[in-house]
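Re: Re: token formats

Sure, here are both.
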Amino acid sequence: MSFFAKINAKQQMGIAALIMGFSVLVSRFMGLFRDKVISWQFGASGETDLYFAAFILPDFLNYLLAGGYVSITLIPLLSKLMEKDTEDAWKFFSAVFCWATSIVILFSCVLWIFAPFFVPYLAPGFDDAQLVRLTEFLRIILPAQICFLPGACFTALLYIRKQFTIPALVPLIYNGMILLCGVLFPYFGIVKGMEGFCWGVLLGAFSGSLLLPFMAARSDGIFLSLQWKHCYLKRFLAIAFPLMVGQSITVLDEQFIRIFGSMAGTGEVSLLSYARRIMMVPVGVVAQAAGVASFPFLASLFAKNDMQSFCETLQRAIKNTFVIVFPITFYMIAVAQPTLGFIFEGGQFGVQETRSATPYLQIMLLSVPFWCIQQILGRSFYAMENTVTPAVVGTCVTLGIIPFYFYCSPRFGGMAVAFLTCFSIALYALLLYFAGKKYFQKAYQGILCLLWKNVLCNGIPFLFCLAAGYYAEFFLQDKLPLLWIQGMHICIGGMVYGLSYLLVAKIFVPENITLLLSPFLRRLKR
């Protein structure tokens, strides 16, 4: 009997969230280290703008084919079939795999051939020489999509089997290969500039996103065959189609930063991307981990028609996420400037770049709690096999915000891009919240009250953290190197924030303290 089979569902979901959260945390830090190398070598230059812009078309292809949602669309249907008829389930899995692989290969080849035609529309602010270089980068990165979609099918299979360790390793290998190739290829004279990082994307996609999940799935038994027909394919397409055509702001916000950042001025794409990379650390560690970990359990409860347990699980996921994400968000806003400086300053990235990127990061961090709401509620809809509602809401928000991007980006620069990104995520989350009242009314009980309590509870620690950081820099100025001062600012601010938060929460929201400390107290007793 496996370890997961010996513990209850609540513990299983908690362990799964910890595994995925730790994976995302390490992956995000690897991504930050990779960006540190990039910023050190190239700063916020045209070359880095080209590298970030090269992902627009490949990412859009991935979104168009619902590559990031294969697990969401495949898990509920495959889980049902596995319980009824294992042999038929493998036929369905094979049919999805064959169609997905064939389509992504076809689209990737077409886009690769016609890449020079598309690039002027991807980065309207670039000149002709930059567009030629962008085409080169794009043609290296684009074939990686052939690995992502089939690999996502194998990863979905692992999730169904409650195997979270291998999927947790996928982003680590992917980011590690990008960093390795980005450093070593130029060092040995194989490529020049940012091209090494592009080759790292391709090799990382093959080794991490495709080969590793396939080997793990095969070791536990997999039965693939050449199948093109299955009665569940129509249902699969009905679930996946809204995700294909309904491009929500959560999957396009990074592309908007790249597209409209190119209209905001040279280097703005890089500065916005660096800021977003830091913002996505808490989003990935808390929001995405909670959403990914809770989804198989929510799908299983819905399949059993146990809506009471479904709402209880959803409510617990939201409450636990709020308790964790609000202190992280407020603290990161308070130490945004030293964080950017500590991570990126050096080489071609100087103090001026840090100051320029700081307000972008602070604005984007305001959207983190809304990211959490969206990630959890979105997967709750998907667990009910309802992809239409999130797709319609997200598409309406996206279409409504695009004219503002076109108008504001060239006039108000990167600040407008950062603000519109934050506003659109918040609007999407709130609309999704109200749309969910029809289905999750019981899960919403006490959520708004807890939300405001957490906002107010973090206000005082936030002010103390700002004051502690200011005085730390004031007294340490000219006594230590800048990097040490920034590190001390972050550490002192963190200690002050943590202690003051525990004190304030103990008085106003004691249940937060219980939730945060109970895992450590249980281990201490053991």
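Second one below.
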Amino acid sequence: MITVNEQVFTLHTRRTTYQMKADAYRVLLHTYYGARVGSADLSYPIRHADRGFSPNPNEAGDWRGYSLDTLPQEYSSCGVGDYRLPSLELELPDGSRLTDLRYTGYERRSGKYTLEGLPAFFGGDEWETLVIFLEDAAAQITVELYYGVLEERDLITRTVRVVNKGDKPVRLCRAASLCLDFQRPDLDFITFDGCHVMERCPHRTPLRHGVQSVGSVRGASSHHHNPFVILCSRDAAEDHGVCYGAMLLYSGNFEAAAERTQLEHNRLVMGIHPYHFRWTLEPGAAFTAPEAALVCSPDGFAGMTHQYHRAIREHLIRDPYRGGRRPVLINNWEATEFNFNAEKLVEIAQGAAGLGIELFVMDDGWFGTRDTDLSGLGDWSVNLKKLPGGLEALVPRIQKMGMKFGLWIEPEMVSENSDLYRAHPDWALGAPGRPQTRGRSQLVLDFAREEVREYIYQAMRQILDSAEISYVKWDMNRSLSDVWSAALPPDRQGEVYHRYVLGLYEVLERLRQDYPNLFIEGCSGGGGRFDAGMLYYTPQIWCSDNTDAIDRLRIQYGTSFCYPASTMGAHVSAVPNGQTGRDTPMETRGVVAMSGTFGYEMDLGKVSQEERETIAQQVQRYKDHWDLIENGDYYRLSSPFEEGPFTAWAHVAPDRRRALVSLVTGSMRAAPPFVTLRIKGLDPDLEYRVNGEETYRGDVLAQVGYPVPILMGDYQSLQLVLEAE
């Protein structure tokens, strides 16, 4: 997968090639990334010409045609003649902020590199690793560029390690995880943006001159922008065109910035956001940037999506249910909010009994003085007024109904009205002499502090050891502000944001090691921290607090470009929906939720007998097809963001002999048109029986389509089960 020939480094995957070259001046040039080609030196298209006001390195002498400002680089320098986006910014002991990186050597290793304290893709002999060494001799800084190559999945991972070889501290102000230079002008930039309850909506714009960027400075990856972006050719669509996916495995502040240059070329730089980032590197110390993961698809978005989904399922997620089906759950939040006791929870569980539901989840309100969101966070002891006898008494009652037990926690936060805050007010983020900013009436615990992490870890252990708990929903319900830590000196406050994320990862990893069979679902007001970094610790994430089925079509559509269905927490909730007031049929709500991890969020003791029968049928249908949904290839058949009679998608088995096709209509109108649904991903030569009735060839369903019946009423749904004869 990796070849080296006279300082030309070529990385091959099944369908793509990535290449770089150290030139005569030891500048590491990026020469190619695209459809697979041979290992020849691909630097020949790089041109050298005098571009006014583009300086020339000292080694170039009087040759004005050689400038860092015009060359495609693998990891860009700063302050020495390249005025485009930098990859690395340092503040050196003399006060200068210059970085000039030159190639010094490489190592090639079998297997995948690992990262201490950070999430990363994993694997064995199917991977190869390349490490390229750069240095700034004057600054006494070395930079190690790591590349992991997973051939079968067209995946190339990248990370960077910066080492201070000098005898004085150096301050790191930016350390991008990747830099990609494209010698082509015709690229669009696709980002996935939104807000709380409307996350990850795709937005596509042509790259224009200057810098376009998305990112987060909220301390989490955020509802507003996702650390996954796409650069693609102007003609790229689901089944054609070149597209490049770039994903950052990080759950804190990030930036993805794209720049179109004077030469009509484009550069993408992605990594930790430089906002309030200033990391001190003591002599001999090293800093490791978060991992980034690249997939290039020469054949459109679907090919990229499939490779990301497979790689995430196989080489990122550590799931206690790996190879098996996760339990169908019922959550009490939308049924009760804070207003419950043990008997009410048992009543809801009794309503779920007999419907095939396998996991009961107790949400917020079970601990401390937590009767509203104004108190209790931080005091992780059971509220015995609500739950007499504690979890030890409640959990067996639920288990006797044939269900496992799970609960909600929010360990990163603290209420001012709590015993914890009264004992340790300095454990919350906040600068001295300033009033603290609140979000959802709560403050943020300083996870950069070891004693805070230890307190939370021990509190979680006490809860988990008190009863048989198989599932935890780990929530985070506000953005970080007032980011100042009492545990760090003034000149190291720029480390707090990153140390917070590292501290979160540490606690989650310790719990995973201690409780390997515990299933943790991530959450941050829904999808406010839906990123690949969290998936390494929490194999599914609550996709959005918005459970409206029609809005979820958009949210789950955008999420699907990178993240597989098995990572998307999705539930059927009551109507009218609390976010939109919309009334959607139970069948449609089930079809939409079934395209993620499946469950219910309502009081099942109050539903009609007809609805109970529908729920039991939905649960059984999910159990019949869970392997297709969670492990099949996902095809977007139509977009909810475009005008059309329906939104449709398909889950297709890897051997293409089975498929589950789902369709949801919009608002009904009189005299509706007759429409067909073209189904992708099938074997063109196989005959497929649809819902046990009509038979069609795969090529016919792809090119001519399946005739969609007229579905009367708004927001109707249809599911088709296709099985090869």
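The radius of gyration is 27 Å. Residues 92 and 214 are 28 Å apart (CA to CA).
- S.
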